[in-house]
Amino acid sequence: MRMIPPLPESRPPTFRTTVHGTVFGARAAVVDRMAQGEELILIPDPPMEEDPMVWVHCRGGDPVGHLPPEINHWLAPWLLRGGSARATAVRVHGSEVPSWKRLIIEVHCAEA
Asked: Who contacts 37 (Cβ-Cβ below 8 Å, separation ≥6)?
């Protein structure tokens, strides 16, 4: 059985956040096809990145965007140390909403 590292102090095991970068490349079309309640995949940058980000992908593998810097700062290193998190789309908006507010997700971090 794999040991999951404890979450950094004062970090919540469940939280909601926006997804940034949803308008680059074909990501906007991916968001347009998404539905509330859809499960998403969270993937951190490789460990050699200076400031690793956590990328959000749909279940089919298409990239959707990345988490905000203030979350990447603690979540990416935690995931790279063996942490585990899953995400669900809780609000999906169209182009009438600013890009950084189009997708709101809920993240559930596995606790030690």
From this structure: 88, 89, 90
